[in-house]
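Data card: per-record layout.
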Amino acid sequence: MKEQDTGDSPGLVRRIWAALRRPSTRYSFAGIASVFFVLGIVFWGGFNTGMEATNQLEFCITCHEMRDNVYQEYKTTVHYSNRTGVRAICSDCHVPKDWTHKIARKIQASGEVWAKLTGRIDTREKFEANRMRMATDEWERMKANGSRECRNCHDFDAMSGDVQKQTVYKKHMKARDDGQTCIDCHKGIAHHLPKEYHDPDED
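The structure for this 203-residue chain is written out next.
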């Protein structure tokens, strides 16, 4: 008498694998490929839409840690309100534009979600206690990538000596020639500097 296959038997796995390898007699290859193509577009569109939704200012300040701390500081800066009416939001400075670096940054940011879930910075006091560490991490990230996000809007080669004050223009050109990036000189431009921060140029 033939032994019946159970749900976890090798026979069941073999039958499933054989069915997957056997051409369908009911549906054409083109039909199946079309379905997977459409599903791929839907998945990609949904994924990308969700990704872009997390780049909106409204999303960034849904947690009170950001809304009550750095967001309030940012609203007093030139990145929020200026004579040209151009506003840089959180993602403009903290999320790369290109896909590869954007995904890497989003994965890295999952650690920030963990800090939220565990209450690591859920009070003003905890936030201030961690400000130097968080700022240093971000400065090092920006230094390592040559202030990539800053350069989406600011570029040494696009700076004009006729428009900028000469003292400022000369400093920018010297920084370019010395291989410096924006974050070398512009720490604290959108958020308060940590109390522990010491500017080496003041030595």
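Known properties of this structure: The mean pLDDT is 87. The CA atoms of residues 65 and 180 lie 32 Å apart.

See the next section for split statistics.
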